[in-house]
Each structure stands twice: as structure tokens, then as C-alpha cells.
Amino acid sequence: MIRNGLSRRALLKSAAVASAVGLLGIKPQQVLSAEGGLLKVRMEADIQVLDPGYMIGGSETSIQYACLPRLAVPVKKGDTWDWAPSDYVEKITQDDPTHISFTLKPGLMWSGDSGEVTAEDVKFSLERMLKSDWAARYPTLERVDVTDKLSGVIILKSPFAATFLMGIASESGSLVPKVAVEKLPDQKFTTELPGQCGPYSMTEWTPKQRVVLKANPDWRGTPVAFQEVQFINIEDTKAAELAFEAGEVDVTGVLPETAARYGKGMPAGTKLTGVPGPYYTWIGLNTEHEKLKDIRVRKAIQRAIDVKSILDAAYGGVAQPAHGIVTEGVTGHRTTSKYSYNPDQARALLAEAGVSDLSLEFKTLNEAYRVTAAQVVQANLADVGIKVDIIPLDSGPFWNLGLESKGDEWKTLQMWWMRYRMSPDPSDGIQWFLKNQVGVWNWERWSDPEFEELWTKGLSETDPAKRNAIYLRMQEIMEDTGAYVWITNDPLSYAHKESVVPGFDTGGEILVEITKKA
User: Fold this and answer.
1) What is the side-by-side order of every strand in the sheet holding 151-156?
2) Which of 379, 371, 364, 333 is nearest to 238 (CA)?
3) Phi-psi category of 445—alpha, beta or left, where left has phi over 0 and alpha has psi -120 to 50?
4) Using CA atoms, how far apart are residues 357 and 112, in angstroms rounded to an integer?
5) pLDDT by residue (tens digit) across 28-79?
6) Has this prediction a pTM greater than 0.90?
7) What DSSP string runs through 264-320?
8) CB half-sphere exposure, 208, CA atoms < 13 A
9) CB 267 within 8 A of CB 245
10) How far apart are CA 326 and CA 295, in angstroms?
């Protein structure tokens, strides 16, 4: 049974694309062309927190890159990612393994009355990350020393290979105005930026509909291609594909099955761009919930779920099964798991645990392909005697499920479909499962001393083979908890108008400030 979620079946079955677009709430005045000065980008979840220390991600990331300063930016060099100085700095240099010096360009002004962007803003912004939900992005940061108004030195406690790609050049390297943030309650903010300084300014947010960015007339860096960017909120990917085909958005992510279809016959005026899969998808189980405390029950669920059937039904058979969280081509990528689909083993484990008539709630974002996957899981678990109630949720309620700061729903959370993204370093994906993330992003709510020790070793290890072994072992520990059913490293494809050349960050989020016209 499916309950508590807006069904989009009628929308997905509709033959009238224009009618479907109307159901999405896209207004005629929003329908302009990327041929002019407007770029329309689909965002799959509404913004909730733009604060770099407490964000959720997705389009929040895109807005931070466009509207906030940073010291460095990610750049693609061949098949690998590197970093480069940003338009905001005169220089930034790795002086030695633990010291990074920088000098900001003069005359960069915050919006409002926060004055010039200074080295004090850099110090404040990076050091506040150490007390934030995203502290693991800076695992070896000690402090930032200010040497003059525009210069300073970032000091690390020990070398860390991913300091730039995970921290300084990422969304977690976004700078905020010290004087404005210090005036805020708890020195945090949500959907209103306390100060902006970038190629774009966020000028409008209509909840559940759109975010509008407009080119900053005072911007002195690399010129942008579009005078206005609209992020259009369409949570369901199938619905977003319909909107794209109707010309209502210029860029959207598409499902793997759609990418395969487009590969055989592209809609007129369309291009398809693939981004190496930065995502990792799994089914999570709450180890503290009374129904799931017994590890034999969790391991039974691991073996009862047929991942191949999920990939065939929900991904059109074009996605490959995962065996961990680290994506292909990144240190620590696993190629095998210690369990496999085996309903007989699942039934035996349940019998050994003395469990019968088990019923569970399975929560997922209300996207068609995720609900399809949940229905496969529902059938799989029914086959071993477990009843599953599927609960689709919109993005706001879903992303609050495991956060202790958002209420008590984490206490009743049982099983869920989850997808995170990572930068090209295994520590970025692994960080969310540490002990200090229980109640934040470690919704499975477990910890392990060896896992914590390996995390510390992995940060400073420079030998590639040893580092690879560390992250392989950490994922094995995760798997052994029984709290994870690995699904896939989602292939990521974007459909876009031929007139648009989208730019991306390391995690596959669209960067509108580097998106160009063809």
C-alpha cells in the first residue's frame, strides 16, 4: 500500500504535455527562451538552508557558487578534477603540506552594509565550518591566520589530500559576511542570504515554485552568459522530463532509461550530457529501532532484496549494481559485496531471530522511479514474510526525517531509500557515517571504534594502496552492520537545449555562472 504522498500517476500517463506542464504550476510568464537572456534550470528539491554550514545540498549548492565568494573553484582536467584560483583572489598558494596562503582582490563588496570582503570574512567562514554540520569537510583544519586586510594563511593540523576539492573549492568553501552573520540568532541563516557577492544575486524565492537569480551589475570577474536564471522546482524527474520536452525548462537531469531512449532518438534541438556518476544510492535501516535492533533481521533484509530487479524496473536496466558508496574511478571503489540476493537465507535468519509477522514502513522521496523501486522491495520482502508500507514524501519532510534538530521523527524511522553525492575523494562520501553524524546524516545510527580509527588514518595517509585498503575496509564495516542495502552509483545525465552548454561542479550540480551559450 502507498500512502501519504501526492500521486503523479495521472501526470505521468498524460498524453498532453502542455497540460502536464500546467499541473506543475509553471506560469506562462516564466516561459522564456535561453536564446535570450533567461536560463531555466530544473531543481528537484526546494531550497531549505543556504548556510554553507547547515545546507542540505542540490540547488542550494548552485546558488552558493553563483552568489557567494570563495577562494578557489573546481576545474575538470581531462578525466580528473583539480582546483584553480577563483575570480575573488589575487593569489592562493599551497606553500607546504599544511599551509595555504591567499590574498583577496581589493574592492569586492558585500550587498547591504557589510562592506568589503576581507580576510576576516575568510577566517570567520572557514573556522565556523569546524562547528557546523559539515565539519568533516575540513577534517584537519586548525585555524586561519589573518596577516592583513586582504591576506591570510590557512593552517592545517596535518596534510589532507582533499583540502581543496572537499573544502576550499567546494560549496563548503563559500564565504559569508562576518559582520552580518554575527548579528543573526545562533549565527545561522536559512533561505535568505545575509550578504551576497558574486556573478549573480538571488532576488526572489517563491516556495515550492522557483528561485530567481539576476546578473550582478557590479561583478568584475568572468562575465556570465545569462542575465537571469530561474531554478524551477519540479520534484519528480519524469515530470521534469515532460517539462523539458515542452520547452518549459532548458536543463534537467533525466532518468537512465530516458537517457537510453534519447540516445536512440533525441528530441529536436536537444543534447544529452553525461556526468560521471557522483551519486551513491542505498536502502538504509535504523539500527536503534526496536524492530531492527537484531542484526539478523537487518541481514535478512539485505539478502531478501533483489537489486537487479530494482535496477531493471526503476532504472530501465541501464544502471549497474553498487557494492558500497565509493563511485567508480575513486580510491576505495568496491567491486564485490559479502552478501547477495538469497531469499532462503533471509527466511533462515528471520527464523533464527524468532521474528515473524514483521511489518515495516519504507519512506522515500515521492519520485516515480523511487516509488517503483520501493514497490519491488515491497514484493521482495513480502516473499520472506515481511509486510512493507510505502510512504512517499515531498523533499522538505523527507530530508528532515533523520535530523534530531528537526523533531522526533528519527525515533520512528525504520527503512528508507537514500541517495547522497560525493566529490572525487572517498572521505567525502564516508564522512556522513561517523559517530558524530548520528542524529545528523548518519540516519542508520551506528558507530564502530575501528571505523573511527580508520577515518583518522585515511585523512593523512599518502600511499595510494594503503589509502585504498582503508576505505575498502570502512565500507566492509558498514556492510557488516546489516544497515545498508547497496543499490547503485546512479549514472547522471542532463538533457539540455542545443543552445546551452551546462557547467557542473564535482558532484554533478549545475553551476550557472560557468554555463554558456553554444
Assistant:
1) 89-96, 99-104, 151-156, 141-148
2) 371
3) left
4) 60
5) 434 444 556 999 999 999 999 999 999 988 899 999 999 999 999 999 887 7
6) no
7) HSPPTTEEEEEE---EEEEEEE-TTSGGG-SHHHHHHHHHH--HHHHHHHHSTT-SP
8) 6
9) yes
10) 24
